[in-house]
Q: What sequence folds into this?
């Protein structure tokens, strides 16, 4: 049976050691992938998202939640005044490798984290986590990360919207052959085609804004949400300081339908980007020739792409996504399965979903929607079907 270090209140850190042991049977790469999701290929991961979802930042966000809760407890006299400030003044730098090393012994991520914080901050850190449960920290910090990721995505989406609006206006009168099932139909304009994509991306932005508000929710209510050693006022004060609201009805975890709604919004925005990428690829087909490859990607007048070599392309988003519906189904299934489980934050696909979406919104070369538009072919009747 695991031995848990008593906190200064005289209460054990966790009241359910069997659950703590079962959650960390194996601490290897496969286990980490199961808990936190597969990491996105660095080539497609924007730097801001790589940092946001790094282990170092995850643990730093845990500490942010712990200190916010500690400050709220100070107000109600549950911990000595100035405790949170004493820890902050240490200006500690968390070491993710050290936390994982400790976890090999404790078989519990939060205990390993708190042990490392105490190593660095000393005696004041022993007051952290008083009366709390792991999900208070893990779920609340996960919400914080999702909100911050949404802010980054919304900023990039604004850039894409501006680029689409500019090109749609530029080509408002550029003729384009309309197609129905790939067959030539009535003539339209290239601007109208881009305007349709613009409207879809704007709807996706609104969905993401609503989902951000819904997921901006945490809990600091203790085991199974009973407030046995805390109070709703402590929860409200701590969460408001983090920019979050409190879960409507507190349980062991933040409700998983919030996560599902967030990932659905991501999925719908991503499919809009994917549809644009597929159309760009179609316009660039040799037999269509209505748009051209980005010169600045390849730096060559003519590009021969070996079939067995990966290339960075303007339409690479659909290669990364494969199908957004399948991706969302997997995330949604895990979200609802986790809702009745041990209280783990839903991490499957989190970093990948955010990073891929960010790459899809902006790409590697900025907010250009297509390369060069060949007006001679936009209204052509010569073998332009696909």
A:
């Amino acid at each position: 049976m695991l031995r848990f270090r008593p906190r200064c209140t005289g209460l054990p850190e966790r009241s359910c050691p069997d659950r703590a042991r079962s959650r960390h049977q194996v601490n290897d790469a496969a286990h980490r992938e199961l808990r936190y999701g597969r990491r996105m290929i660095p080539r497609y991961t924007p730097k801001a998202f790589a940092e946001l979802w790094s282990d170092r930042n995850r643990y730093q966000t845990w500490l942010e939640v712990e200190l916010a809760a500690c400050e709220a407890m100070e107000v109600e006299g549950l911990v000595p005044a100035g405790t949170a400030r004493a820890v902050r003044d240490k200006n500690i730098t968390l070491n993710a490798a050290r936390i994982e090393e400790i976890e090999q012994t404790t078989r519990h991520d939060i205990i390993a984290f708190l042990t490392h914080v105490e190593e660095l901050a000393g005696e004041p850190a022993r007051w952290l986590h008083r009366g709390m449960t792991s999900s208070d920290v893990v779920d609340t910090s996960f919400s914080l990360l999702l909100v911050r990721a949404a802010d980054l995505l919304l900023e990039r989406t604004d850039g894409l919207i501006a680029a689409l609006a500019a090109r749609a206006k530029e080509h408002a009168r550029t003729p384009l052959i309309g197609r129905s099932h790939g067959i030539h139909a009535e003539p339209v304009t290239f601007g109208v085609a881009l305007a349709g994509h613009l409207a879809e991306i704007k709807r996706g932005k609104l969905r993401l804004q609503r989902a951000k508000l819904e997921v901006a929710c945490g809990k600091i209510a203790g085991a199974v949400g009973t407030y046995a050693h805390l109070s709703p006022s402590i929860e409200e004060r701590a969460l408001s300081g983090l920019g979050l609201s409190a879960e409507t009805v507190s349980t062991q975890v933040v409700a998983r339908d919030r996560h599902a709604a967030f990932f659905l919004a991501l999925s719908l925005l991503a499919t809009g980007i994917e549809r644009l990428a597929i159309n760009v690829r179609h316009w660039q087909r040799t037999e269509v020739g209505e748009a051209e490859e980005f010169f600045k990607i390849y730096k060559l007048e003519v590009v021969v792409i070996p079939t067995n070599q990966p290339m960075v392309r303007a339409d690479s988003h659909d290669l990364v996504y494969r199908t957004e519906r399948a991706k969302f189904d997997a995330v949604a299934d895990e979200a609802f399965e986790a809702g009745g489980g041990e209280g783990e934050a839903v991490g499957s696909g989190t970093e990948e979903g955010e990073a891929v979406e960010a790459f899809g919104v902006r790409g590697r070369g900025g907010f250009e929607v297509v390369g060069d538009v060949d007006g001679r072919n936009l209204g052509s009747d010569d073998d332009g079907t696909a």
